[in-house]
Amino acid sequence: MGTWQEGPGPAHQRLSDRLRLLILDGRLSLGAALPSERDLAAVLGTSRTTVGAAYRTLVEHGYLATRARARATVRLPQDIRPPSASARFPRASGAASASAGSAPSPHSFSASKKPAPPRTSAPLSSNSWPRPSS
Q1: For residues 74 and 125, which has the higher predicted lDDT (pLDDT)?
Q2: For the stretch 24-35, what's the b/e string if a residue is b when 16 or more beta carbons lie within 10 angstroms of its beta carbon?
Q3: Which of 42, 50, 57, 101 has a CB 3.0–4.6 Å from the CB of 16, allowing a cystine?
Q4: Residue pLDDT, tens place only, 42-52
Q5: Can you tell me the distance from the alpha carbon of 96 to that of 89, in angstroms, rounded to the nearest whole number?
Q6: Are 40 and 80 in contact (CB under 8 A)?
Q7: For residues 28 and 68, is the Cβ–Cβ distance under 8 A?
Q8: Where are the beta strands (DSSP E) in 60-129?
């Protein structure tokens, strides 16, 4: 998680800022379940109150979704959701224009879905957090 513990402001704000940045840069994937408050506090060596306040801040700003007796899951606020693929990349008629003898549209492309590499997809996966000893 980096050096979230150093810097100005309350610890819960620094932690929520760090988690928000991990969400925005994709290191925490959408829908990923975060550790429980107790587990994250134990791993980070901070209080459960700090983690709880950070989680509540992220929920208030739309970066986490919560349900009773379930772990918080990563999401994006409505106002910064990426547009749908069809809105970002209108369907270009590259094949039609190529067959007509003109150059393909600069907007035509091909893409394939590939899973994120482990270093990107697992920074806060449930398996990467050591369980606190009882």
Answers
A1: 74
A2: eeebbbeebebb
A3: 57
A4: 999 999 999 99
A5: 17
A6: no
A7: no
A8: 64-65, 73-74
